[in-house]
User: What shape does this take?
Amino acid sequence: MSVDKVTVEVIRNACIFIAEEMGIVLRRTAYSPNIKDRLDMSCAIFSSRGELVAQAEHIPVHLGSMTVCVENTLKYLDEKGVSLSEGDVVIVNDPYIAGTHLNDITLIKPFYFKGELAGFIVNKAHHVDVGGKTPGSINPMAKSLYEEGVVIEPVKIVEKGELNRRVLEELLGNVRVPEYTKGDIKAQLASLNVGERRMEEIFNKYGYSTVIEAWSMVLDYGERYLLEKLRKVRGGTYSAVDFLEYGEELLKLKCTLNISSNMIIIDFKGSSKQVDAPINAVYGVTYSASCYAVKSILDPDLPMNHGILRRLRVEASLGSIVNPIKPAPVAAGNLETSQRIVDVIHLAFSKCLPGRVPAAPHGSMNNVMIGGVFDGKKWAFYETIGGGMGGRPGREGVDGVHVNMTNTLNTPIEIAEREYPILFLEYSLRENSCGHGEYRGGLGIRRVFTIRRGRAIFSLVASRIKTKPWGLMGGGPGKPGEHYVLKKDGRRISLKGNDVVELEPGDVVYIRTPGGGGYGRPENRSRELVLRDVEEGRISLEEARIHYGL
Assistant: This one.
């Protein structure tokens, strides 16, 4: 007998909240500012068959890749003859298995109810450093995965409830800030334990068969929901091309949408081949970005579970920038290439769903990694910096915000200056960076800082420096990013998208992130809104004259 719909809905929402509560526990027990302040972590629940059942509203690039991670990990363990028991926890960060990059460490805990495997409780968190050549581990100059940090293939970090100290100590021996790593791993374990207890409560209350059947109904509903949306889209084939910077070259990302009433296929055939640089995106990242792009355009309320994945296929040629062959480096593919994948899919969608797709956002996570030795102690700092959101049908873009594949907060200046020998000199919106249009794009960000004492290695991974965030429906492009270091002797060092610079006290780093593209023709923007933008310092009077005839 089928479970009644009210019970299904109660169980569905309970599982979503369990994932949310796991995130709260992880945040509150974490050691590093990157997790406890920036919330660079994600939690989800899977069925015993590895199907995504529920997830928290965390990081899109984490969440979409978890399906690939769980599937690959279970396959890997099966091939190695490793069986899972109650009380086990598996740790993995190998991007070619876990689906993102080495900094993202995933923990998977099988959940048993009365001796029977019922599902998996999973979290993924970005650890501030996992070794490698540069502090922060996102090495802009890496030619191989093994230059980016320690690679962990699936292994039990907890076995039948007992912590495997050998596995943990091997990890801690390869990182720069072991106290952060140890604390964050234990926070992840605490998060899983809370998730397990909450799942026990649900299964005890409703019974095994009721919960499993409710999950099946939830997935079937997700599939029906997507099919209903696809029937309202004009079927056909739609293509778009965008570009990602690689030194002096522009690498092509080509996307073809094949849409029918019962399936959507996203094909990246024609994209550039993989390169000896960390901007390759493993398949898990490409899959994740594709899922996000479909959901964000077709319907943001689309229930995110395995049901919709039955009707979505992502094809990416092996050996390409969106599906490289190991050991190609991939640290920035999770960050920058994922953003451009969303951009190009959105651009393709704009051809079949005009009036629904926004202009391009800043399109870069603007990654800052810095670290060194201070008072005899190693330190490493990582953050992503937002930019301008693209103008939208009926509304202008948001200023200074993270978009698309990232959903983190900034690092509060008070926290960063307390934890690290960094002094921030400016944190503001970047005037005149928006794309002009009837609905202007959002403004980028200016973030300026120096180090107070000691020497440090500063790394930058960013994009949209040579290319501009595109506008739509006659809107203008956003201003590209501009980043440089002003040395204390007066020299100015312009930074490429992937760059490393040694800093000493007195050197000042300037990060100027891109603005969002504009939507609609600028001449259609009201005079009152243009005057407001001038009065509030978003655009100069000269810009208003040039673009709006003010």
